[in-house]
TrEMBL record:
<dbReference type="GO" id="GO:0005829">
    <property type="term" value="C:cytosol"/>
</dbReference>
<dbReference type="Pfam" id="PF02806">
    <property type="entry name" value="Alpha-amylase_C"/>
</dbReference>
<feature type="active site" description="Proton donor">
    <location>
        <position position="460"/>
    </location>
</feature>
<feature type="active site" description="Nucleophile">
    <location>
        <position position="407"/>
    </location>
</feature>
<dbReference type="InterPro" id="IPR054169">
    <property type="entry name" value="GlgB_N"/>
</dbReference>
<dbReference type="InterPro" id="IPR006047">
    <property type="entry name" value="GH13_cat_dom"/>
</dbReference>
<feature type="domain" description="Glycosyl hydrolase family 13 catalytic">
    <location>
        <begin position="249"/>
        <end position="612"/>
    </location>
</feature>
<comment type="pathway">
    <text>Glycan biosynthesis; glycogen biosynthesis.</text>
</comment>
<keyword id="KW-0119">Carbohydrate metabolism</keyword>
<dbReference type="InterPro" id="IPR013780">
    <property type="entry name" value="Glyco_hydro_b"/>
</dbReference>
<protein>
    <recommendedName>
        <fullName>1,4-alpha-glucan branching enzyme GlgB</fullName>
        <ecNumber>2.4.1.18</ecNumber>
    </recommendedName>
</protein>
<dbReference type="GO" id="GO:0043169">
    <property type="term" value="F:cation binding"/>
</dbReference>
<comment type="subunit">
    <text>Monomer.</text>
</comment>
<dbReference type="InterPro" id="IPR017853">
    <property type="entry name" value="GH"/>
</dbReference>
<dbReference type="InterPro" id="IPR044143">
    <property type="entry name" value="GlgB_N_E_set_prok"/>
</dbReference>
<dbReference type="Pfam" id="PF02922">
    <property type="entry name" value="CBM_48"/>
</dbReference>
<keyword id="KW-0328">Glycosyltransferase</keyword>
Length: 728
């Protein structure tokens, strides 16, 4: 055995336990000579091809172990390895262990501090060129591993072939493998301290195999030519929260199905169908239920294993770029449903990643959601926070996403969320608030809004936690919008009652205005309200067939005149009767029937009204944009209100009747003397209504009513809404 061979290191290489294989393998110098060590378990013979001096140097097998060595001279050389298999197959390759680290000291420092917001450009798999040699750089964080290798078709999935080095004992392992190209499948093989072998998908992978396969796939995000500069310039010039926001929530796998199995349309095909529809319907944004890679269709994307990979169900990352680009070219924003609250227990995912609770907590009282069967991220670990915050930047920077709807915020804020006594651990002060998660949100939102002030960060937060949508420098969590779950629950409960009983539940209709301006609220009728036995929106409505549709029109009308941005789940706009299922397309055939056509037209016109009438969105978040006229008329279940902008001639009055009794000569107090005109009525014949509308000019008269000096006498439709505009 050559004297420069370190037997201890060789034993660690052969035992697949070396944490820095580059220290032994590759070219090294000792006592004035340079030598090359290589480890190829399947090799029968190896040579060093000296590219500097154009000669071949035979390598010596060390104890027939698969380790080969050769002295190459007194000067360093540029070289390749020639490998000859026992079968006679041979090939040449640059030596993966001949390259300096790509991960630099600054990368390690920032990542350890939780502030490397572009760490996704360093960790994962990336096509790069070093010293004129092209290949793939692999890097992964696994600080507690005994050994990390990258495996794939390129090495027969043999973890002995390409062990990675632990860069400066940082816990980040890396290797550059020359000659690899796009579309290579790979995983990380991790040997734990207990000598178990784990095969893990890459947490930072940009693409993955189609389920049920779980390998990561090398892909190139570079080269897509974006065409959305005009859209980005328009967006940057405006205050995004002081604009109309009407969101169409979509599950890409079931909006429409492709013919045959598995039934998924490509991102590009979806773009052509969905964007035209959304634009025609008048929505301003599409919110996509989670499209990060996930193994189980029935999770709807909320159990993520590939946070940096658009799911391969619908195509490649560049196909998804095309989808977003086409949305922007049509002036439609794209919001992603984002899941930083928990992750699944799938063996190839983040759980027990390096043989320890790396991304989660060791103690299940802190690290597991018992009712979801998922793991909770450890927000007290800088590298975990960096993983998530960098992931948010990734979608925004690389895919031009306009906003993130953050799922299950309450489950992150409360240590006892969904847990019984003894299933959780209080914070250091004995409370149930998760201080680490609070700090995470403040860090996330402050840095995202600093770099992207036109972003929409939306919290699905179901409790009364204060300041969710208030700036972090005022003690808030820093979100831009918060889902108004209180309004949704109260309103749907109110609608469920037969109109004759609604007078006893009037508070459910009006209570939301008590707290309406404590947050920047979005009113939502989301996917969660039309699944798990809750019934579709149309089936929540009481009454006969006509009344169901009239009720739903009145409900949508009230939602659109109520302060707050808007969100509606797909299928609700044409009154789908069945609950939503991820396994089938929406019931588009219902549009063959007049009532569903009329409902679709109604929602389309409601969106147009919302976009055209500044008062409906100009001041959603303060009382300056809203006044009750009469919110106390519980006996008739009629409410009336004013929506205002900064222009008097844009003032609107909305009157909504939640009983099937039409009202003629109904008096309401109005804010200004003069003329009013009905601009919208849900009871119009074209929407399937009974035609109780107000025609011509309506003139106010001097009479004190509803504590106002001017009064109008109007018709109020049954189970309907009328909207009047002040004409001066």
């Amino acid at each position: 055995m050559e004297k420069y061979i370190n037997e201890v290191e060789m034993a660690e290489i052969l035992g697949t336990e070396h944490r820095d294989p580059h220290h032994f393998l590759g070219m090294h110098q000792q006592d004035g000579i340079y030598y090359v060590n290589a480890y190829k378990p399947s090799a029968f013979r190896m040579e060093v091809l000296d590219l500097t001096n154009q000669k071949q140097i035979k390598m010596t097998s060390v104890n027939d172990s698969g380790i080969f060595t050769a002295v190459v001279g007194e000067q360093p050389i540029s070289y390749k390895l020639k490998i000859v298999e026992g079968s006679g197959y041979e090939w040449e390759t640059y030596d993966a262990y001949a390259f300096e680290p790509v991960i630099q000291e600054l990368d390690m420092y920032l990542f350890g501090n939780g502030t490397h917001y572009e760490i996704y450009k360093k960790l994962g798999a990336h096509l790069i060129t070093i010293d004129g040699v092209s290949g793939v750089h692999f890097a992964v964080w696994a600080p507690n591993a005994k050994r990390v290798s990258v495996i794939g078709d390129f090495c027969g999935w043999d973890g002995r072939v390409y062990p990675l080095r632990n860069v400066s004992n940082s816990g980040i392992y890396e290797i550059f493998i020359p000659g690899l190209e796009e579309n290579e499948k790979y995983k990380f093989e991790i040997k734990t301290q207990a000598n178990y072998i784990l095969e893990k998908s890459d947490p930072y992978a940009n693409y993955a195999e189609f389920r049920p396969n779980t390998a990561s796939v090398v892909t190139n995000l570079e080269g897509y030519e974006w065409q959305d500069d005009a859209y980005k310039e328009r967006k940057a010039s405006m205050n995004v929260l002081n604009q109309p926001i009407s969101i169409y929530e979509v599950h890409l796998g079931s909006w429409k199905k492709a013919e045959g199995e598995p039934g998924y349309m490509n991102y590009r095909d979806i773009a052509e169908d969905l964007i035209g529809y959304v634009k025609e319907m008048g929505y301003t944004h599409i919110e996509l239920m989670p499209i990060a890679e996930h193994p189980f269709d029935g999770s709807w994307g909320y159990q993520v294993t590939g946070y940096f990979a658009p799911t391969s169900r619908f195509g490649t990352p560049k196909d998804f770029m095309y989808f977003v680009d086409r949305c922007h070219q049509n002036d439609i924003g794209v919001i992603l449903d984002w899941v930083p609250a928990h992750f699944p227990k799938d063996a190839h995912g983040l759980v027990n990643f390096d043989g320890t609770a790396l991304y989660e907590h060791e103690d299940p009282r802190k690290g597991e959601h018992p009712h979801w069967g998922t793991m909770i991220f450890n927000y007290g670990r800088n590298e975990v926070n960096n993983f998530l915050i960098a992931n948010a930047f990734y979608w925004i920077n690389e895919f031009h996403i306009d906003g993130l709807r953050v799922d299950a915020v309450a489950s992150m804020l409360y240590l006892d969320y969904g847990k019984d006594y003894g299933e959780w651990i209080p914070n250091p002060h004995g409370g149930r608030e998760n201080y680490d998660a609070i700090d995470f949100f403040k860090h996330l939102n402050s840095i995202l809004y600093k770099d992207h002030p036109d972003l929409l960060m939306i919290a699905e937060e179901s409790t009364s936690w204060p300041g969710v949508s208030r700036p972090t420098n005022y003690g808030g969590l820093g979100f831009g919008l918060k889902w108004n779950m209180g309004w949704m629950n109260d309103f749907l409960r109110y609608l469920s009652f037969d109109p004759i009983h609604r007078q006893y539940h009037h508070n459910d209709l009006t209570f939301s205005m008590v707290y309406a301006f404590t947050e920047n609220f979005a009113l939502v009728l989301s996917h969660d309200e039309v699944v798990h036995g809750k019934g579709s929106m149309i089936n929540k409505m009481p009454g006969d067939y006509w009344q169901k549709f009239a009720n739903l029109r009145a409900a949508y009308g009230f939602m659109y005149v109520h302060p707050g941005k808007k969100l509606m789940f797909m299928g609700c706009e044409f009154a789908q009767f069945d609950e939503w299922s991820e396994n089938k397309s929406l019931d588009w055939h219902l549009l063959e029937f007049e009532k569903h056509q009329q409902m679709q037209r109604y929602v389309k016109d409601l969106n147009r009204l919302y976009l055209d009438e500044t008062a409906l969105w100009f001041d959603d978040f303060t009382s300056e944009g809203f006044e009750w006229i009469n919110c106390m008329d519980y006996a008739t279940s009629i409410i009336s209100l004013v929506r205002k902008s900064n222009q008097i001639d844009e003032t609107l009055i909305a009157v909504v009747n939640f009983t099937p009794v039409p009202r003629t000569l109904h008096k309401i107090g109005v804010p200004y003397k003069g003329y009013y005109e009905e601009i919208f009525n849900s009871d119009d014949f074209k929407y399937g209504g009974s035609g109780v509308i107000n025609t011509g000019t309506l003139t106010s008269f001097d009479e004190r009513y509803d504590e106002r000096d001017q009064t109008l006498s109007i018709k109020v439709p049954p189970l309907g809404m009328t909207v009047l505009k002040y004409k001066g």
